[in-house]
Amino acid sequence: MTELQKRVLTGIVGIVVLLFVLMQGGIFLKLALFLLSVEVVRELYNAFRNIKINLNIISLLIGCISLFIFEIYEVSLDFSIILVLISSFIFVLFSEKYSLNDIAFTVFSFIYGPYLLNLLYGLDKSLIYLVFIIAFSTDTFAYFIGSAIGKHKLIPKVSPNKSIEGALGGIIGCLVLTLIYFYYIKLPINILSIIFIIIASMAGQIGDLFASKIKRITGIKDYAKILPGHGGILDRFDSTILIIPFIYILQFFLF
């Protein structure tokens, strides 16, 4: 099986699983977010280890478990950050294994990965779908338009294949599809929602570039090999993770 065939097959299976989880919601979504969070932690741990940064895996797992429990009992997810901070401080005090630099990267990794990812559970179901519509449409339009007419490199030192034309095409294509979705589910279409869609699409591309920057710094090609043809969870959800908080904010203005 070629890499393209693996990529397509994994993509089809992934979409089916994603739709099932989103349609079922509830405990299925909570478990999915927990498993994704643990895998993201593993991928970041392995990546940063290449540059001698020792993430506190126990604190990160405490954070992931607390997110899962807090979602069940409808407690603010912000408390999970406090737990990660306190547990990290304890390890610094009683163990020579971790430096302040390690702890800083541990807290960053938790907020960047599990915390932002789990904000998805606090969204209305229609907005959960919106997150993935923005992510997938931006990626798709950016790829095809960039491949067709892309001439000016966006940030060649980070991602040499991405172009300014592709980035703009991704935003425009995303805006069109998202406004159709807004109209279909009767969400308000106004200047505020349009601005948020554009910002969320840009955030998705920034998330993609940021994840690529981490890979270049840590000297890895992919975060993992868990998804044949795609790499790791972060390779697939890098743009989605940064879109979620913007849609989370948008929810307060729409509902």
TrEMBL record:
Membrane-protein topology? Multi-pass membrane protein
Task: Please name the GO terms that the record assigns under molecular function.
Answer: phosphatidate cytidylyltransferase activity
Q: In which pathway does it act?
A: Phospholipid metabolism; CDP-diacylglycerol biosynthesis; CDP-diacylglycerol from sn-glycerol 3-phosphate: step 3/3; Lipid metabolism
Localization in the cell? Cell membrane
Q: Which InterPro entries match?
A: PC_trans (IPR000374)
What reaction(s) does this enzyme catalyze?
a 1,2-diacyl-sn-glycero-3-phosphate + CTP + H(+) = a CDP-1,2-diacyl-sn-glycerol + diphosphate
Q: Where are the transmembrane segments?
A: 12-41, 53-73, 79-96, 103-121, 127-145, 166-185, 191-212, 233-254
> What are the EC numbers?
2.7.7.41
Pfam families linked: CTP_transf_1
Family stated for the protein in its record: Belongs to the CDS family.
UniProt keywords, alphabetically: Cell membrane, Lipid biosynthesis, Lipid metabolism, Membrane, Nucleotidyltransferase, Phospholipid biosynthesis, Phospholipid metabolism, Transferase, Transmembrane, Transmembrane helix
Q: Can you say what this protein is called?
A: Phosphatidate cytidylyltransferase
